[in-house]
Amino acid sequence: MIVRAYRVLLRAYPRSLRDAHGEEMVSLVQDRAGDGEPWWRLWPSLLSDTARGATSTRWEHLMTTHRSMVLGAIGAFAALAALSDGPRAAVPVLIVATAATVFVLRWRPSVRDHHGPSRSWARWVGAGIALLATAVLAMAAVDREFTEIEWAIVFFAFVAGLFLTATGIAVLAGSRRPAGT
């Protein structure tokens, strides 16, 4: 009964952590219950440990994702500047983007997910390429002038495609960094 209830409690943790350490955590609870620890002492301990551990683990995961999104936005802005005004006008943007990228990567948490590289980068890049292709095909397929609304939609799709692609690249680069760097 205690083990089954604890397995439900473990769902508060991210799936990657449960997959890697869930059985060890359940085994520890089994050992504690098997050693005769009373339920009124065991459960408050389990609840507080889970509340602290799951909250901090989910927060680290959220921050890692948001840092990749910041890098994606920086990369998209730099690419857009280079495409719109040429390389000479984009140099200041690229310098700022590089400095911001180094800053964001340097300040990422040292606690890493040790379960291998994240596969979510492929979804980001795939969605970005799909939006970029849609925008380019829309511009190439129409042989008349776009209205302002149509240009806004195509431009939004293009910028969103740059953002998603750059975010996917940032997620991939972050997942390949060794732990503690």
Main traits of this protein?
mainly alpha; 181 residues; elongated
**Could you give a short account of the major beta sheet?**
none
Oligomeric state of the chains present here: single chain
Beta-strand percentage range? under 5%
Order of helices and strands: HHHHH
Helix/strand structural class? mainly alpha
As a percent range, the share of helical residues equals over 70%
Describe what you observe in this structure.
- It contains five helices and no strands.
- The chain has 181 residues and is mostly helical.
- It has one domain (2-175).
- Helix 4 (120-141) runs antiparallel to helix 5 (148-175).
- It is elongated and about 80 Å long.
- The model is unreliable at 109-117 (pLDDT under 50).
Write the layout of secondary structure elements.
Layout: H1 2-9, H2 15-34, H3 39-106, H4 120-141, H5 148-175
Helix pairs in contact: 1-2, 3-5, 4-5
